Every structure is written in structure tokens, then in C-alpha cells.
């Protein structure tokens, strides 16, 4: 499946901030994590990630530091700043609203099967 360019671009900032909320990382590892998290459906390029990381750094959402890797090459490590954590919290709220709306207008799963939002809670005895 090909994910549309606009959707990939819209999700890029919250995805990177979310990955850095897991812990500091460097470019190649972030690219691998995106591929892993998407089950291979998203494969970002260097040309997409590094401009985004530079923008997030300019905005104060991430901080960076050059370090030598075990392979001997210097790597720029990125970590989430306090401002970035606040931006991530705001992004999560916004994406939660968008996800909730999509759940309502697309009650069927991606495979077309109708899913009940109450079924898992009923099975757990929470409702």
C-alpha cells in the first residue's frame, strides 16, 4: 500500500517527536524505527527526515549533540526538549480528535469488517 505524501507529511512531526519521547536517537535509527513501527508501510528517506529534524531543532522541540559511534563515525544524536514534550502532548490531543472523528465516519476497519467499540470493554467486564 502506498501512503499518500500529504498524510506522511502531516504525521511526520508527531511521529518523530514520539520516537524521541522513547529516548534519544540519531537519524538512521529514527528511520529504522519508523519502518519498524509501520510494519514496513512507511519508509522515509534521509531527504525527508533531516530537514524535519533541523526544523524541530530551530523550533526548540529537539536538542542535538555530536558523538562518536562505536563504528568511529560521528553521529548527531537528538533528544526531545521540554518544549518538544509540550508540543508532543498538544499533537497527541489534536491527533486524538482526528482519530476519533475517523473512527466515527469509518466504523469499519481497514479490512471492511464492522467492529464494535464496546466489544472489547464488554469482554473485559468494564461496561
Describe this structure as you would to a colleague.
- It is a single chain.
- The chain has 127 residues and is α+β, with helices and mostly antiparallel strands.
- It has a domain of 85 residues: Orthogonal Bundle (Arc Repressor Mutant, subunit A).
- The chain is built from 5 helices and 3 strands.
- The chain has a 3-stranded antiparallel β-sheet.
- α1 packs across α4.
- The longest helix has 24 residues.
- The radius of gyration is 18 Å and the shape is globular.
- It starts with a helix and ends with a helix.
List the helices and strands and how they pair.
Blueprint: H1 5-22, E1 25-26, H2 27-37, H3 46-58, E2 62-68, E3 74-80, H4 82-105, H5 119-124
Antiparallel strand pairs: 1-3, 2-3
Helix pairs in contact: 1-4
Strand segment tally: 3
Within CATH, the superfamily of one domain carries the name Winged helix-like DNA-binding domain superfamily/Winged helix DNA-binding domain
Sheet/helix structural class: alpha+beta
Would you give the CATH topology of one domain?
Arc Repressor Mutant, subunit A
Q: Roughly what is the average pLDDT, rounded to an integer?
A: 88
Radius of gyration: 18 Å
**Coarse morphology:** globular
Order of helices and strands: HEHHEEHH
Protein name: Helix-turn-helix transcriptional regulator
Organism: Agromyces mariniharenae
Pfam families: PadR (PF03551)
InterPro entries: Metal_resp_DNA-bind_regulator, Tscrpt_reg_PadR_N, WH-like_DNA-bd_sf, WH_DNA-bd_sf
Short synopsis of the structure:
By secondary structure, the protein is of the alpha+beta class.
